[in-house]
Write a structure and sequence with these properties.
The protein has one domain: Elongation Factor Tu (Ef-tu), domain 3 (Beta Barrel). With about 150 residues, the protein is an alpha+beta fold. About 35% of the residues are buried. Strands 1-2-6-5-4-7 form a six-stranded antiparallel β-barrel. A hairpin with a 3-residue loop joins strand 4 and strand 5. It has three helices and eight strands; from the N terminus they run αβαβββββαββ. InterPro entries: Riboflavin_kinase_dom_sf. Keywords: Flavoprotein, FMN, Nucleotide-binding, Transferase. GO terms for molecular function: nucleotide binding; riboflavin kinase activity.
Length: about 150
């Protein structure tokens, strides 16, 4: 079966309702996402419908955030946890993390476009983040959801 992504994630239209809303802060990055993109580029390209931006949006919550029913995607020697997200109700992307830990205040978001300038974010800005269940990614049986 082929790996597919959800149409809403590729177009930014008809965003699913639900999930959890978090108020987090935008932080400028350290450019470490290049390492993660080596592992994630193929799955992110499929999920997002085109090649992702060569960086990530770094967000930090006041307390650890757990992804609700993330999709697990094995890459190389790791299993990545993936969930779709909506930033400030306007930009869509995929949050990814490789445990441990499963819950952490840091959230790394990958998208097709560079979200920070798109939303005019400055270091330290408060951001609304809607985290949806991994089931909204549109992954087939190559990935499975955790419970």
């Amino acid at each position: 079966m082929a790996l597919m992504g959800a149409e809403w994630l590729q177009t930014g239209r008809n965003i699913p309702a639900g999930g959890t809303i978090h108020h987090v802060r935008y932080e400028t990055g350290t450019r470490s996402s290049k390492e993660h993109l080596r592992d994630l580029n193929s799955v992110l390209t499929t999920l997002l419908g085109r090649t992702p931006f060569k960086g990530s949006l770094n967000l930090r919550a006041d307390s650890p955030v757990t992804f609700d029913a993330p999709a697990e995607f094995p890459v190389a020697d790791r299993v990545w946890l993936l969930v779709p997200v909506v930033v400030n109700g306007a930009a869509v992307g995929v949050a990814a993390r490789k445990p441990p830990p499963v819950a952490t205040p840091f959230i790394e978001v990958f998208a097709c476009d560079q979200i920070a300038p798109q939303l005019d974010l400055k270091d330290g800005d408060l951001v609304g983040l809607q985290i949806l269940s991994g089931e909204h990614l549109g992954l087939d049986d190559h990935a499975r959801s955790t419970t």
